[in-house]
Amino acid sequence: MPPRPAFARAATRQQAGGLASPVRRHALTAPQPDPSQQSLPFSQFAALFTAVMLPMFMAAVDQTLLASATPRIARDLGGLADTSWIAVGYLLATTVTAPLYGRLGDRWGRRNMLLAALGIFMLGSLACGLAETMGGLVAARLLQGLGGGGLMVLSQSLIGELVSPAQRPRYQGYFAVVFTVASVGGPVIGGFVVNHGDWRWLFLANLPLGVVAGWRVWKLPRPPRSASRDAPYDPAGVLLFALCATCALLWLSFVGHRFVLLSSASAALLGTALAAGALLAWQQRRHPNPFLPLDVLRLRGVPWVCLSVVGFSGTLFALIFLLPIYLQVGQRANAADAGLQLLPLTIGLVVGSTINARVSARTLRSGMLPPYGLGAASLALLALAVLPPTQLGIAIASAVCGIGFGSVMPSAQIATQMLAGRERLGAAAALLSLTRSTGAAVGTAAFGGLAFALLDLRGGNSGASVGGLSPERVTQAFHIVFGVLAAYAAAATLAAARAPRMDLRRSVASAAH
């Protein structure tokens, strides 16, 4: 049996500070090394890095990889009006399962649950690659999302389990780099593959990556039994949330082009969503360990933070989904060019996040930039709504949106962590992740549905109708969509303006009060 890696011994011994040294020599005479300066040998670093970063990369890149492939998929499978559910189905499944994976990881082991999530994700990827109809692809994306919900949350949790506190900031930095590369490169890679090959390889490529990731995760050590394994969990809350979210998203996606507002289908979906939501609110207040962290949501200032995140993520993911359709169907760009034209948006996110970090570090205050960033994004979207479309204008507006959006999540993370306090950091992180995913799903469904209703794609017109849409008709419809998106971003600006500004010199404990 090969020897256990040093990071495994460090996690098992649970020593505060740096990684555990396997041998203690001359403890009384030799000075102890600074834990923050210690690093893993390359072989052990590579083992841990590939085990936790590769699953996270697969989950992150899958959120943007299909952006520039959507029109081609609609042509091959038919049903442009249903393509929003390629993204919404995946986002819905990850939204519901991500908090559940966190609880199951505490109960059954994060390594074991990450292996299970990888298996489900790979099975869903295979089903996506073999799909012959739009309905089959959406169902496969739901299955893929059931696994994808655990990849990112469990990968980050494994860092806390296997790496000492002194080394965790370094790995969080690696996470940020990998996530940035995935977000920026996803649309470009997707556009290149679709333009020069078959979109099915975007899914099938996950299979060899998943095999490598599973092998590396399998070689991680099995941690000792967690004390939280016996904590109660809330399957009823998960099911009620899934029912409420599914019915609400179906209604937002299809009202106006699948069925009219005043119809039996509309009433059934909306009524079920409202009833499930009311029952969920009643049930969550009475459960000892609820699915939704209501105790954090009740803290002063947190609702405004969550509303700003819903507005930001909804606008961002709607743009990621709709811009390639606008460029390929309305401006007659190919998939590769559409992917490249998303670069200003994704690179702008990195620039905005960097600017926010430097301003916060210099002023020792967080939360000052999001209102200005969201306001600038709202004005950029308004410009897209009223000005004639040009490649340069779209690129500038996308870059402004990206820079503005980049300040929101870092500030929201700091605010929720400080307001929640040290003892509720996990609940605060779960709430923010749930808020971001829900906002993304709602934005994609609502604004995708609006675009398809304006294009009059009733009954899920076939993919052949995609090429038959005139550029003038598409441009006119998307001008309205961009105008409504600008108003949505403006509402998020108001929420961000009401969110608290956090003094970074205060301790977490004092901020919680």
Structural commentary:
- The protein is mainly alpha-helical and 513 residues long.
- The chain has 3 domains: 43-226, MFS general substrate transporter like domains (Growth Hormone, Chain: A, Up-down Bundle); 234-288; 292-513, Growth Hormone, Chain: A, CATH 1.20.1250.
- Helices cover 73% and strands 1% of the residues.
- The protein has helices at 6-13, 42-61, 70-77, 84-108, 110-130, 134-162, 168-196, 201-204, 206-218, 235-254, 264-284, 294-297, 302-330, 335-341, 343-363, 370-386, 391-405, 408-420, 425-454, 464-468, 471-498, 508-512; strands at 365-366, 502-503.
- The protein has a two-stranded antiparallel ribbon.
List its traits.
single chain; Growth Hormone, Chain: A; disordered C terminus; two-stranded antiparallel sheet; MFS_trans_sf; transmembrane helix; mainly alpha; 513 residues; MFS; 22 helices; 73% helix
Secondary structure blueprint with pairings:
Layout: H1 6-13, H2 42-61, H3 70-77, H4 84-108, H5 110-130, H6 134-162, H7 168-196, H8 201-204, H9 206-218, H10 235-254, H11 264-284, H12 294-297, H13 302-330, H14 335-341, H15 343-363, E1 365-366, H16 370-386, H17 391-405, H18 408-420, H19 425-454, H20 464-468, H21 471-498, E2 502-503, H22 508-512
Antiparallel strand pairs: 1-2
Helix pairs in contact: 2-6, 2-7, 2-9, 4-5, 4-6, 4-10, 4-19, 5-6, 5-9, 7-14, 7-15, 10-11, 10-19, 13-14, 13-18, 13-19, 13-21, 15-17, 16-17, 16-21, 18-19, 19-21
